[in-house]
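Next up, a specimen:

>
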Amino acid sequence: MEAIRRCELLEVQASALGELGRPFDAMPSPDEYDADWSGVAYDRDLAHLMPRFEEISASWTTRPPLPRFGGEFSITHLAYVLSQRVGPWVNQEPTEFRRQFMASLRCIDSTPNSGSGRMSFLRMRPHVSPLEIWYSDIADIGGEPYPPGYIKLDLSYSQYLEALLHTKGVFGWQYLYAEISLRDTSWSDVRNRLKAMVDVFPELFPQCDYTELRERLEARL
């Protein structure tokens, strides 16, 4: 957050930093939030890596002479994530598998300021470690038996948060951790943003190592 605010070549359109919430060792077990989560366990590394703030969010764009691109993130305390209720629209899914899948998702990151609809989710599944992370976008991603527009990420929850520290929420950064090709012309906007990120961010944020992100992008081109 402070790195984004201090960077003179980024224009911060909105940001928020909430109060400190409960520590990890004071968190109820998952099945206390939802009785259907019996057998669901927290990832072990969350004891050290779970964000304590009730909210951390920012929306930003680059300033000239940088290439024009932007990003946004909005994450909340894990207690708020697990307190989310399942919406009635889940029952409109056409198969039982899809209804159960959608009911297992809890949003960990979103883009409310831009209204772009991009969201990332923690999937609450019993006896799965680490818990899965899924990404949703208005794009041709995913496939049966899952709902269209959803794709699994090769990240744990804590790894997602670490990647967010590097990407600063650049729109579409999650595709670097998905089994997907960005070669098609329909992905040109995402591809251009990610190329710009790995080109200019190493100079803006020299404390971060962008080698892995560059390699992941090259593997998808």
